[in-house]
Amino acid sequence: MPAHRLPDLPLPGRVALSVPEQTRGTPATPSPLARFNDASAEDAVHTLLPCLRHPHWAHRVAAHRPYPDLPALLAAADEATYDLTPEALAAALAAEPLPTLPEGAYSAAHTALSAAGAAYESRFGHAFVICLDGLPGHEVLDHVLAGIRSRLANDPEEERLVAADELRRLARARLTGALGGTGRRAPGR
Predict the structure, then answer these.
(1) Is the predicted pLDDT of residue 13 greater than 70, yes or no?
(2) Residue 39 DSSP class
(3) Distance between CA 125 and CA 139 in Å, rounded?
(4) Residues 52/55/58/59 CA torsion (nearest 10 deg)
(5) Structural domains of the chain ordered from first start
(6) What angle do CA 127, 145, 169 make, to 5 degrees?
(7) Rounded to an integer, what distance in angstroms lies between the CA atom of residue 8 and that of residue 22?
(8) What local confidence, expressed as pLDDT, does residue 9 receive?
(9) Residue 4's Cα: distance from chain center in Å?
(10) What is the pTM of this model?
């Protein structure tokens, strides 16, 4: 082999590392999770509050940064949700809006959802909360209305537990959308 074609050999005591062509000279873009981990406490809390609308929850999740990966963050968010006091849970539930209907839903659907939501709120004292992550848009209305109707039969303590679990699922879906790096936002409901 001619001298100009000889492979580069490492000097004694050094190791040769192969760097893929596409990464040479290209600065790495930090992932959404890395940016969250590096953010100020105030910015981290600001990112978390739309996921579950209670400051104690957001501060607790932010205080345990850095997270090595999204599953670790989701586990911490779950734990913080389970540890909400009844008063904090009530405040977080009260801050939740009614589920939104997909674009193009007819006006009777909005009327039915408003009426069912009012009946639910009158019975339990907070907005109906349900996680619709991954549900096709054409099934949202039926799923929400069926959920409200079936959960109206719960006693208040049973419904508090169901609503708390739905709130936890909502927070997970929202966190995954915001920090999962998928580029998509999780549905608000």
Answers:
(1) no
(2) S
(3) 26
(4) -170
(5) 32-179 (1.10.3330.10)
(6) 55
(7) 20
(8) 43
(9) 56
(10) 0.74
User: Could you read off the pLDDT of 33-64 as tens digits, one per residue?
Assistant: 999 999 999 999 999 999 999 999 999 999 99
DSSP E strand stretches across the chain: none
Band (81; pLDDT cuts 50, 70, 90):
very high
Sign of the C-alpha dihedral computed for residues 54, 56, 59 and 64 taken in this order: negative
3-state secondary structure of 151: helix
In angstroms, rounded to a whole number, what is the distance separating the alpha carbons of residues 49 and 174?
A: 10
For the record, the structure tokens of 104 come out as 């193009």
Let me know: does 61 contact 48? Beta carbons within 8 Å.
yes
Q: Which two tokens stand for residue 57?
A: 């929850």
Cis status of the peptide bond prior to 66, with omega within 30 of 0:
yes
Distance CA 128, CA 93 (A): 8
* Contact (Cβ atoms closer than 8 angstroms) between residue 93 and residue 126: yes
